[in-house]
Design a protein that fits this description.
alpha+beta, 7-stranded mixed sheet, 3 helices, 11 strands, 18% helix, elongated
């Protein structure tokens, strides 16, 4: 089940048009904010404010920040607004009043890559296809038993306007 969850995260966030109808949210979003350079380390507090501001007000309800764990703790978590006030509140887990979610897989720093996404995943669709989930028990000749999990899922990102990407230059 853990591997299934990681695969869903990978597809929903990074899936191409062949895996996800309309591509994953890190590839298919309506607006973007471009940082000062091609490295994620160039992210600034102003970039976070601009990202928040580019998502239309009616779509901000329930919106969250999504970052790859390593990128978040290296480049975002220590940002300050005015060299004193931290952008990220570790007690509430929020940036500018919106929850931060860390994801398993994400792009690495580099030209045009996305450091993070701000938006609402309720607009992304994940659903079962054609058959229910099955857990198969397979007896081996060696006397051991394997359990194999089968399922089919479909993904779609039908409303890219619900996401803003924070990109490296």
């Amino acid at each position: 089940y853990e591997q299934l969850g990681q695969k869903i995260d990978s597809a929903v966030f990074h899936g191409s048009g062949t895996e996800v109808n309309g591509s994953g949210v890190f590839q298919n979003y309506s607006a973007s904010v471009v940082m000062a350079s091609s490295t994620f380390a160039s992210v600034s507090a102003a970039n976070l404010y601009e990202t928040l501001g580019k998502l239309p007000g009616e779509r901000r309800a329930g919106a969250k920040w999504y970052f790859k764990t390593a990128n978040f703790w290296t480049d975002v978590a220590n940002l300050t607004h005015d060299s004193v006030v931290r952008m990220y509140d570790p007690v509430s887990g929020k940036i500018l009043g919106h929850n931060v979610r860390e994801i398993w897989n994400g792009p690495d720093t580099g030209t045009g890559n996305v450091l993070g996404i701000f938006g609402n995943l309720r607009t992304a669709l994940v659903g079962s296809r054609l058959m229910g989930t099955q857990l198969k028990r397979i007896e081996n000749k060696t006397g051991t038993t394997d359990y194999v999990f089968f399922t089919r899922l479909a993904y779609a990102n039908p409303l890219p306007g619900s996401f803003v990407g924070l990109e490296a230059a």
